[in-house]
Amino acid sequence: MADHSTNVTALQDSGEVPTTGTGLITGQTTSQMTNQSFSSLNQSLTIKLDHNNFLIWHNQMLNVVIASRFDDILDGTRPCPPYFLPDPNSTSAITFKSPVVNPEYITWQRQNRLVMSWIHSSLIEPMMTQIMSYNTTHEIWESLRQSFASASQAHIMELRLHLQTIRKGGLSMLDYMLRICNIYDNLTVVGELVSEQDQIMAILGGLGLEYNPFVVTITL
Question: CA-CA distances (angstroms) from residue 151 to 74, 139, 164, 184, 185?
Fold first, then answer.
């Protein structure tokens, strides 16, 4: 698709998009929406994406985008409309494009760039180079998802292995329980729920020999 960014910027600066017979679409409503979105964004996007927290970041971004009703732009189900409106006066079998800019195109681009800016603001600087060549939110979203999905699964496996191998050793019972609870919390945050039975088995499995009578009593 041709890049009409320069023309779009000029129209946005004027706050108007010409239409055929429908008056003018002003930029005031979109600007108000943008200001409100950025105001709430400062409180919502507290997590910066790194190599260890993709699933947490993913959930954070989904919450913000869905709450703002831009999830169809994010998932690609609402593609970019054509730049020009079709010519209503054309009698040809081929519909010629009129010189009138499609207002839906302008709206879509504003919303697309808004969500792109949200994603950019939640990335650490080295990751910016990975997405600089993309012009749509959906392209960026898919690129990041494909890059980090396998790493996220590896992180989940690492947490589960840690849960299975943790030992009380010389820790106090309080510190031991806190460490196990921390693993539970990390798994829950990334969408991996640990059953109550698995939690009990992890706790009992890490106790020393001196706790055997207690373990036997619990497991009978």
Answer: 22, 19, 20, 19, 19
pLDDT at 14: 44
DSSP 8-state symbol, 17: E
* Cα end-to-end distance, the chain, whole Å: 68
Angle of helix 137-165 versus helix 173-189 axis, rounded to 10: 150
Residue 145, C-beta contacts closer than 8 angstroms, at least 6 positions apart: 58
Low-confidence residues of the chain, pLDDT below 70?
A: 1-43, 90-98, 216, 219-220
pTM of the model as a whole: 0.60
Measuring CA to CA, how many Å separate 50 from each of 62, 79, 172?
Answer: 17, 29, 33
- Give, in order, the Cα–Cα distances in Å from 112 to each of 31, 60, 136, 209: 14, 18, 6, 60
**Residue 143 near residue 130 (C-beta atoms within 8 A):** yes
Cβ atoms 20, 99 nearer than 8 A: no
139, with CB counted inside 10 A (0-12, 13-18, 19+), is middle
